[in-house]
Every structure is written in structure tokens, then in C-alpha cells.
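S1.2 Input.
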Amino acid sequence: MSIIDDLKAIEAEAHEGIFGAGDLANLDKIRVAVTGKKGSLTGVLRQMGKLSPQERPQVGKLANEVRNRVEAALEQRRHELEHAALEARIAADSVDVTLPGRVPTVGSEHLISQIIEEMEQIFCGMGYTVEDGPYVETSYNNFTALNAPLDHPSRSARDTFYVVDNNPGSLDYSEVHANGESDILLRTQTSGVQIRTMLKQKPPIYMIAPGTVFRPDTPDACHLPQFNQIEGLVVDEGITFGDLKGTLDYFIREMFGKDRATRYRPHFFPFTEPSCEVDVSCGVCHGEGCRFCKGTGWLEILGCGMVDPNVLDNCGVDHEKYTGFAFGIGAERVAALRYNLPDLRMLMTGDERFLKQF
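S1.3 Output.
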């Protein structure tokens, strides 16, 4: 029978093509050419209707056997080609496991973040709370409530970033400067958080306010236009300058070492009276005098003082009943004094060779 001969010829040709295929793409072409809808084997099977009833069982049995053997051969060759492709890929991507690996760089907190966190831990250990406030502040909270008059130099546009509102009717301003500038500004100090805390919370208050502040200073070894400040405030009955001194002495020794001495010098701040600057003994020369401390043996570290009664009155706190003290310190300055850094700009460069030392 010619149809039986055709089936045997198709099987022989299919096996030759299958085991001669060099990749999966060619093997798939052979599968389609033989067993697809328009394949040679499918075409032969369509001729079954022309056979006599006596021939159909024999031819049908042979056709099924041929299809099964062809499909088995296709599956076997597919596994062989997939295995060969995998072996080739492994060989191409092989790695010499004896070579040293690439160790990923492990990050850490920035030095300033470490300093702020350590200062928070010291004051929280004394029972202080950590308060926060907005970067964009009103001049009332930033200056007026802190007893700074309208003509105070710190309120000049040379010392403060004012935010000019293009739509004056969109905000309910509580005050406007004589020169017409908006009273909204980027805070120059975190003292505004002290005001907000006193306005919403009755004494006793023991708090610190860490945060970023902004001043239009030209960056140099000792100044940055954006830096981090930690201010503290205590308001309670019977608070004295002795409480202020004891608190700051404890903080400085915890921060810089038990052997560091402190010195208090009279100063002026609008929001405290009396006020003073606090110095810490030089950690390089131990008070003997060197280039780092300019031969004085002391390094200026922070400003502080007893809260001015006017500030308490502005916040609705009875200054006849309550007294308090406040202080402010820059985190970058603490880092510079603690690690003898000659230039504050080193903290802002992002140079990993410098930062990963800490």
C-alpha cells in the first residue's frame, strides 16, 4: 500500500531530521513540518478516508505507532538540546571560586546623625522629651516671642531666609515687616519649637529641640548656610542658674569626656537674662594652649541663660511662679570639637574616605 510506504518514509525522514537538529529552534521547525496542522504526517492521516474498511485498522495502527515514535524522538532530542544548552551556559558563566569575592560596601549613619542621637540619649536620660517643629516658621515664633525687637540685626534679610508669598491673601499673617517682606521664613534656630511647646503645654517643661536651621552664611571652615542645632528648654518652679550649670556640666562631660572642664562667660541674648557662653577645655592640649584652641586652652561650645520673663509672658507662662533656662548648641560644632575637624565643610562633601572613619 502506498500510504503505508508514505508513513514509513515520513518516520525515517523525521528521525534523520530530529537527531540532526543542532538547536531547539531547528527542532521546533521539524516538529511543525511533521506533526503540525499542515505537516507531512498529518497530511497522510487525512487520506485515511480513501481507504477501504478492511485497510483502515492496519493503517490506523501503523499511523499511531509512527506518531508516537516521532513524538518520543522529539521529546528525547529536546531534553538533549536543553541539557547541552545549559552546560554551555554554565561553562560560559563559570566563576573561579578561589578568587576573592567583591565585598559590598556597608553603610552607616552620618556623623551628624550619630552626634544628634547621642545628645538625645544623654538628655532623655535626664528626663527630657524630644520635640519637633516646622522648617518654615513665622517671624513671631522665630523672633518676636523670643524678645527680639523688629530692629534686631538677626531679623535682617542678610541674616535670614525670608519666604515671599506671591499671594498675600492666601495666608493669615500675624505680622508684616516694615519693608513689606512676608513674615514667613526658614527658621534660623530651633527656638521656635520652644515657643510652640510652651504655648501648647503647661509647665513643668523639660525638652530639647534638635533640627535643621538655615542662615545665609557663606560656607567656610566655621560656617554653613544649613546646619543642625539642638536647643533645650526647662521651665518649672524654683529653677536657678545652678540647675543650668549642673545640667550643662553633666552634658559636656558625657559628650566630651569626664576630664573636660567648663567655663562660663557673660554674654547677651535677647531671650535669656542673664546669658552666657560656655567653653570646654581643649581636648588637644588639655588646657595648656595650642594652635587648635588659639593658645587659650578653651573652645567655645554653646550659648545659654535663664529664660527672660518677657518670653514666658509671650507664651502665657506666669513668670512670677515659674523660671527656666535655655541653651543651644550646633551638632556640627560638637563633631568638629570632638574629633578635631579643621573645616565644617568636610561634613558636607559626602566623601566616604572621610565619613567612614566614624
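S1.4 Remarks. The longest helix spans residues 56-92.
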